[in-house]
Amino acid sequence: AKSLETTYLHAGAGLRHTTTQNMISLPLYVSHIERDNNTLADVTGMMAEWFSNPERSGIFQAGTTLILENRDYKNSDTRDGYYTELDGTVIHNCHGTIHRLWSGLSLFHNHTEADIYQYSGTALKAGFIAGLPLECTLNGRIRYSFSNYDEKELLAPKKRRDRQFQFNLGISRMLTETVGVELNWQETDNNSTFDLYEYKRRIITLTGFMQF
Questions:
Q1: pLDDT recorded at residue 2
Q2: Is residue 118 domain-resident?
């Protein structure tokens, strides 16, 4: 198979308000994706989050996230559209430590100009965060999603249905009170009723971030 070099640039900023029992954040972001030095797509988005401590001990938290994106593909106007996702999450914080376990359910919809690229689906997610020596943090996540497309492509045997498994593992460290770095490893295995969309993908990223 031919190897393709993909470049992903992402920048975001937003506001966060925290009280003893609630946290609300509203970050905005932009993304630019290139493949073999050619622009593939530009994305602008918003991710609204709300989390609450049902009990003051903070051992359990519940929250919801709403993602809205506008996606602009440079060489395929039929793929242009918007993406929405609504996510519910439950978090268990291990008492007296930064360790936590979480799980969640997502509903998503990708609306495009052409119905053959339009899909809706559901995802199940689970993960953990664990403190390590040297002030490092380890985080992991698994995600299993079901995507059903609205229309059959011309050469497809039937309407496309994808089942995707994704695994993430990352380690991060704060270098100062506000600046940190994260090394992340992602594996994706996509199974589809249309062989053209069967693939496995590995992505390794090194990210710098600031928090205030």
A1: 56
A2: no
Same domain, 12 and 89: yes
147 is in which domain, residue-wise?
125-212
Check if the beta carbon of residue 126 is closer than 8 Å to that of residue 141: yes
- With respect to residue 6, please indicate whether it lies within any of the assigned structural domains: yes
Same domain? For 84 and 7 the reply is yes
The DSSP 8-state label assigned to residue 94 in this structure reads P
Those residues whose C-beta lies under 8 Å from the C-beta of residue 86, and which sit 6 or more positions away, are 64, 65, 66, 67, 106, 107, 108
What does pTM read for this prediction? 0.84
190 and 140 belong to one structural domain: yes
**176 and 81 inside one domain:** no
Residue 5's pLDDT band (cuts 50, 70, 90): confident
- Band (pLDDT 50/70/90 cuts) for residue 168 is very high
DSSP 181: E
Q: Quick one: pLDDT at residue 94?
A: 83
Burial 174-192 (b: 16+ CB within 10 A, else e): eeeeeebeeeeeeeeebeb
Q: Which helix (H) or strand (E) holds 84?
A: strand 81-93
